[in-house]
Write a structure and sequence with these properties.
single chain, mainly alpha
């Protein structure tokens, strides 16, 4: 089971680490896009979310308080889904469909993050292939 969880952590974290690099390297462009969606749009907000993604992604990937990292990712994903992918505000059918898909993707990833939080917190030090044990004990 340890190897499967490690492979899952690697595959899961790759998405967030890639996104973190985009946030940090393309902050101005991403801030403009956020403004067009009606979300907080300052470069500092984009860089802050990039750091949140980086810390959460690395935490999950490396197994350093990976449950806390998973929680950080959920904290990013839920507001992002609500603010950036508000499909209910779209009048164009194609735009509505695209935003619906993005909203559902973010919410599904948030659900997966919360499940990862629970799994790691519950397994404690028995999970293996991590650098530290969990930050939380929900036994």
């Amino acid at each position: 089971m340890d190897v499967l969880v490690l492979i899952g952590r690697i595959l899961f974290a790759a998405l967030f680490l890639s996104s973190a690099l985009s946030h940090l390297k393309q902050s101005k462009t991403m801030a403009e896009y956020a403004a067009s969606r009606g979300a907080p749009s300052s470069v500092s907000v984009i860089r802050g979310t990039g750091l949140l993604l980086l810390i959460g992604g690395l935490s999950v990937l490396l197994g350093i308080w990976a449950d806390l990292g998973a929680l950080l990712l959920a904290v990013f994903l839920i507001p992002t889904a609500l603010l950036m992918h508000a499909f209910w505000k779209e009048s164009d059918a194609q735009a509505r469909q695209m935003e619906t898909v993005q909203f559902q993707k973010d919410m599904a990833l948030a659900g997966a993050s919360l499940m990862l939080l629970a799994l790691i917190s519950h397994a404690g030090g028995d999970l293996g292939l991590t650098i530290t044990g969990p930050a939380f004990d929900i036994g």
